[in-house]
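Q: What would this chain look like folded?
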Amino acid sequence: MEKIRLGTRNVSIEFPGVKALTNVNFEVSTGEIHALVGANGAGKSTLMKVLAGANPDYTGEVYLNDQVVDLRTTLAAKKLGIQIVYQEVDMALIPTLSVAENVMLNDTVMNGRYIMNWRSLYRRAAEVLQRLNIQVDTHKLVQDLSLAQKQMVLIARAIVNECNFLILDEPTAPLSDTETEELFRLVKHLQATENIAIIFISHRINEIIRICERYTVMRNGMVVDTTDITPQTTTKEIVDKMLGRSFEENFPKEVVDIGEDLFSVEHLSGADGKVNDVTFHVRKGEIVGIAGLVGAGKSELCKTIFGAYEKTGGKVVMDGRELKISNPSQALKNRIALVPEERRKEGVLVNETVSFNVTAASLDDYCTASFLNKRKIDQAAQEYVEKLGIKTPSVRQLVRNLSGGNQQKVAVAKWMAADCDLYIFDEPTKGVDVGAKQDIFHLICEIARRGNGVIYASCENSELLSITDRMYVLFDGQIMAELETAQTSEDEIMHYAVGNRAQYA
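A: My prediction, written as structure tokens:
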């Protein structure tokens, strides 16, 4: 098949106070799966948005088969066969429309017709889903789909019209192992049968080595290396290039004195049946893991404790006192914090500044009479920017201009500033690089060292084994086992995560 090449020459772009890209040269050809890797803030997403027409203020050239093209709008990029599927799939879909309407959305919006042929629309949507072997009911509302199904809908939308270059931004971050395997099948299918170039952005280096043929490393807005992936390629080799230094992969658990019981839930149920008769406890200074596969009910459990989902049974106890929590405001008043999985949707206010976000949960502390003391707010924000290593030119920078890992640090800083007793982290390292992950681990250990309790919910068993003291394994909203971290393994966690029950439960 004829290869089409897409690339950049000396592409640079600046945001207020930030040189996001500096003279970037990058090229990809149809028929290849090409990884783009780098630490948070390295410029990966910025470069891909240039190729997708979403960053029009670039300098330098973008070319297609040596012919310079002008990519100043997303429409221009789509007409040239360039499509992007962003990490936050919910931001790109319309939940109250059907699968078919979302798949055909570009055609619906841009066809210029006043009368819609619904039979044709549903037929064409079904054809593209069948072509990709995606088993989703075209009449089902998108709001009723799983995250993996939503991602498949976005990929189907991308290729329903002619697509030569498909950019996938952290596509496996929200997926289970089974769902990841299905995504890989689809990626290989697109490469083999559609002659599409896949640009694969991921922090999961083992996946990149497995599925990609080449990788490009970015650091501080510049391309530092492009290399073929061979059987000799290692995770450490790629990570060292990303960070510009040698990296030790294991995180040593910090020793913290563990005190008496701080928090417990007893026979807790809720979240429309997704949390079912859950009992566990957390001691002062202890990091307690909630393990389980995607869909086990971890997020629902966290949000039920926090009052974001309705509790239908059981009780929540802090320091021996039963709490009445029916909304997040009451949780905060009882000194409980939640750092949610979907940071852009629930964790930060992307159109507000870093300083506003950092102090948003504790604004009472920054008031003089009935007025906000902006100088005091900025000082507090700067303290947490330095403490957490948040990369931003100013505390007045809008959070939307920060990388994903730095947005996550802002979400953590907000609750650290609120000075709570119990901190709940729901998939806190989702979509962040290995360097930022270690920063977040150190922050969580610092929280525990202060005598606070920590709940750490994650489907990454290696993380749970690195940072927790104890863990509970969840399956279908129920606890299957309680495990001492120092005495367990990934195999034992998985044994219970698939539904086997220990004596504990």
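The first helix runs from residue 44 to 51.
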